[in-house]
Design goal:
mainly beta, RmlC_Cupin_sf, Cupin domain-containing protein, metal-binding
């Protein structure tokens, strides 16, 4: 299966999970796994949330920012991989001048 990504055809999600501004993303869910490519603009964020029933892996494609993972700040840059295991919480913030672009996978099993 091929997942087509076109940065000119992304959906806009205002205040994603209670975050600031919005994210633009292409998402896919097949009932077992959820994955997405997301863009967070300058000053935008994904709101803090707990992974109660699943985990999440995030790979930074470009840009910079940070996550707050269980209360600890972790810097993000191109090539960073952030992992949030089941039962933990995180938020992701873009505090730089260019979009923070990432690929995320959330297994729903």
């Amino acid at each position: 299966m091929i997942f087509e990504y076109d940065e000119n055809n992304l959906d806009k999600f205002e205040n994603f999970k209670g975050g600031e501004k919005y994210i633009e993303a292409k998402m896919y869910f097949d009932g077992l796994n959820r994955f997405m490519i997301g863009h967070i603009p300058t000053g935008g964020s994904v709101g803090e949330h707990v992974h109660e029933t699943n985990s999440e892996v995030i790979y930074v494609i470009s840009g910079n920012g940070y996550v707050i993972y269980d209360g600890q700040r972790e810097e993000l840059h191109k090539g960073s991989v952030h992992y949030c295991p089941k039962g933990h919480k995180h938020t992701m913030v873009n505090d730089h001048e260019e979009d923070l672009v990432y690929f995320a996978v959330v297994p729903e099993q």
